[in-house]
Amino acid sequence: MNKMIIRGGHRLSGDVTIGGAKNSTVALIPAAILADTPVQFDMVPNILDVHNLMVILESMNVKSDFADGILNVDPTNIIENALPSKAIKSLRASYYFMGALLGRFGRAKVTFPGGDNIGPRPIDQHIKAFKAMGAKVVNDKDKVIITTDEKGLHGASIFLDVVSVGATINAILAAVKANGHTVIRNAAKEPEIIDIVTFLNNMGAKIRGAGTDVIRIEGVAKLVAQNTHIIIPDRIEAGTYLAMASAYGDGVNIHNVIPEHLESFIAKLLEMGIDLKINEDSIYVPKSHKLNSIEIKTMPYPGFATDLQQPITPLLLKANGDSTIIDTIYPKRTKHISELNKMGAKIRYNDGNGSIIVSHTDDLDGTTISAGEIRAGASEMIAGLMANGTTVINNADNILRGYDNIVDKLTQLNAEVEIINDEK
Fold first, then answer.
1. One of 49, 74, 116, 404 is an active-site residue; which one?
2. Closest to 341 measured CA to CA, from 380, 372, 315
3. What positions does the entry give for phosphoenolpyruvate binding (predicted)?
4. Which of 43, 71, 200, 256 is the most exposed place for a label (fewest CB within 10 A)?
5. Is 206 annotated as a binding-site member?
6. CA dist 92 to 14, 49, 113, 183, 206, Å?
7. What pLDDT is stored for residue 424 in this prediction?
């Protein structure tokens, strides 16, 4: 397991370029096995999740290679095989192989997915969608076994009881080659869903309505890649750097951003009094001075993303008065609180109403803490940059899972950061 060592006190300045969206990439790679030809992705982030997904592909005789942001995937000789449980358990998004394998073979057997422990994240809506299309789903200890009869999957009307990005994508992956017409209602609207649908449609899929709450899919027999799919910029990475630059920057220019994907987050920074300069595909963050406290409530897109409530927390420490966060998506996403408090932060969790109260804190001090999951780790990383002295973040693999070339990017911004391998 890796450690991140941060020597604080070096204010940030310069330029940083955002990589491709993690939340698109981890669905696009499983989606690639639906193709009847090799596929190529550009703007692929260099994160641990990508390498774990490549291990899973290899177990199915799907060749892949990755260099300089380009990922090639060749599923033409795919075979059905047991997927490596260690890789499956290392990331939540491995559940997309359920929909992808079901769409490819009409059956799937997948170890129950792992990933970040941020509270209950059931897959009942995924299973509901599969069953509606004619699949039989059985839980066998830690495995999910999905089968169909000789007729295979068929189109269906699916209503998701809760807005779920994962269930929406899995239903699309299963339906894209199914016989007939599928309608997904109460679908999630995230930009990453539009990205995945764009990839599939460019190969010949017939999907309409991505970005709305009703998605319609007409099943097709083949999917043939005609061009390289360029992955959209990562709005969560962009938001993390926006928070970081606002909290401890002397002028940072963030490139490869789609501001429309961050409107709810940007609105909160403006409300705090940060004078952002928003351009077509970049945002300049000047040095901030007096900051206002704010209230945040996470919501499904286009609301404030749950993935950004932890990265914005160190910035809220600089605001006058108390700021409040209520995470309606994952109320138990609180692993960062105790770790930041070890550094001197004044943050408390109100169990009664599920609110996080962040009070003004003048100084943070470096210490040894642990990254319990990706976004908690990002929050701690920002706090470490702001802190006096040295911060050691254990379990830094959780940060590396979600942030592209993080050490290089922070170094370019004048930070002193390194990753060391803990052999113990």
1. 116
2. 380
3. 22-23
4. 256
5. no
6. 34, 10, 5, 25, 27
7. 52
Q: Which pLDDT belongs to residue 316?
A: 98
Q: Is 116 a catalytic residue?
A: yes
Q: What pTM does this model have?
A: 0.95
23 is in an annotated binding site: yes
Paired tokens of 237: 């990475």
29 labelled ligand-binding = no
307 is in an annotated binding site: yes
pLDDT tens, 313-344? 999 999 999 999 999 999 999 999 999 999 99
pLDDT in tens, 214-232: 999 999 999 999 999 999 9
Q: What is the pLDDT of residues 377-416, one digit of tens each?
A: 999 999 999 999 999 999 999 999 999 999 999 999 999 9
Q: According to the annotation, is 125 in a ligand binding site? A: yes
Instruction: Report H helices in 48-118.
Output: 48-59, 85-90, 96-105
Supply the DSSP symbol for 293.
Answer: -
Alpha helices (H) along 176-288: 191-202, 235-248, 263-272
Q: Token pair 């998605």 is at which residue?
A: 215
Q: What CA–CA distance (Å, rounded) separates 296 from 36?
A: 45
* Partner residues linked to 179 by β-bridges: 154
Burial of residue 211, with CB atoms counted within 10 A of its CB: 0-12 exposed, 13-18 middle, 19 or more buried: middle
Q: Which helix (H) or strand (E) holds 63?
A: strand 63-67
